[in-house]
Amino acid sequence: MTRFGYTLMTEQSGPRELVGYAVAAERAGFDFEVMSDHYSPWLTEQGHAPYAWTTLGAVAHATERVGLMTYVTCPTLRYHPAVVAQKSATLQILAEGRFVLGLGSGENLNEHVVGAGWPAIAERQDMLAEAIEVIRALHTGDLVNHRGEFFQVDSARIWDLPDEGVDIGVAVAGDKGIERFAPLADHLVAVEPNAEIVESWNEVDGAPQIGRDARAVGQIPICWDPDEDAAVARAHEQFRWFGGGWKVNADLPTPAGFSGATTYVRPEDVAESIPCGPDLDKIVEAVSAYWEAGFTDVALVQVGDEGQDRFLSEAAGPLLERLRSAAP
């Protein structure tokens, strides 16, 4: 059965609002919730960037049933992997086993703030692989000493460990990334409904099999609103950065950079890639690309803080019914 999630998007809402949306999304019937981990919004118009881990702790306490996931955390520059190991273990205890640690190689937008520079993709992937090694070691509860190429850990131990452990999802895209990280991860994270990603993952020796042992978690933006023109305008204002693609999005350093890069993106351009308006069937059609590609889980991003309560109270329930009726 395909699972449907709700995105707690830190770039467009404050921390108290996000906790409220998390509770409402659980009530509406979503299966899981993912949270972005940003230091800056993509665009100034979005206007928010609360600390994801504090907010997730509050969400874990305020909810009872939904799965939780970072989508995604970079454990290499802004955070040392030893710190990620500790806070993910703590969050899993608070969530009573509902949490998955989603990891990725990061974006310049969020990681440059600590003044450590922005490495090339090959080095970022080397750092991520070593970070996963450190996190896995610390999650055993053993005393860890590590001397690696990028990280040092001195006599560290995680004292509060969840009985369930902490599953790790890793964001991947190309063949090299899949081949490298599939054996290191428990689950796949990807932002495009590409069947080749799922197929390639399952062909890697030592990789947990998607659909059996592993989940493939995707994400798609939507902009529901009773007024289609209002939905298109909001999607353009808040989400025009989305059309740049992840190769561009990973490297731009500031919201001003994203604003400049999207100067000539028109509202109709955004509407071509994001379903906008009241038509739930149009949203279902867009989401279906993920389950047709073999994804087991799809998280929806309702664009914009404005109208979020109305989406959750009016549209989310009927939308989930249609999605579950259409999905395998």
Beta-strand residue fraction: 5-15%
- Into how many domains do the coordinates divide? 1
- How widely separated are the two ends? 6 Å
For the sheet with most strands, the description reads: 8 strands, parallel, barrel
Helical content (DSSP H or I, runs of 4+): 40-55%
Strand order of the largest sheet: 1-2-3-4-7-8-9-10
The average pLDDT value, as a whole number, equals 96
The total strand number stands at 10
- CATH architecture identity: Alpha-Beta Barrel
Shape: globular
CATH topology: TIM Barrel
**CATH C-level label:** Alpha Beta
Low-pLDDT parts are none
CATH superfamily: Luciferase-like domain
Determine the number of helices (DSSP H or I, runs of at least 4 residues): 13
What's the alpha carbon Rg, rounded to whole Å?
A: 19 Å
What structural category characterises the helix and strand content?
alpha/beta
| Element string (H = helix, E = strand) | EHEHEHEHHEEEHEHEHHHHHEH
Top keywords for this entry?
13 helices, eight-stranded parallel beta barrel, two-stranded antiparallel ribbon, alpha/beta, 328 residues, TIM Barrel
Report on this model:
The structure is a single chain. By secondary structure, the protein is α/β, with parallel strands linked by helices. It has one domain: Alpha-Beta Barrel (TIM Barrel). It contains 13 helices and ten strands. It has helices spanning 15-28, 52-62, 81-95, 108-111, 121-138, 175-181, 195-203, 228-239, 246-249, 255-261, 267-273, 280-292, 308-326, and strands at 3-8, 32-35, 67-70, 99-103, 144-147, 152-156, 167-171, 187-189, 216-222, 297-302. The chain has an eight-stranded parallel β-barrel, surrounded by five helices. Strands 5-6 form a two-stranded antiparallel ribbon. It is globular, with a radius of gyration of 19 Å. The mean pLDDT is 96.
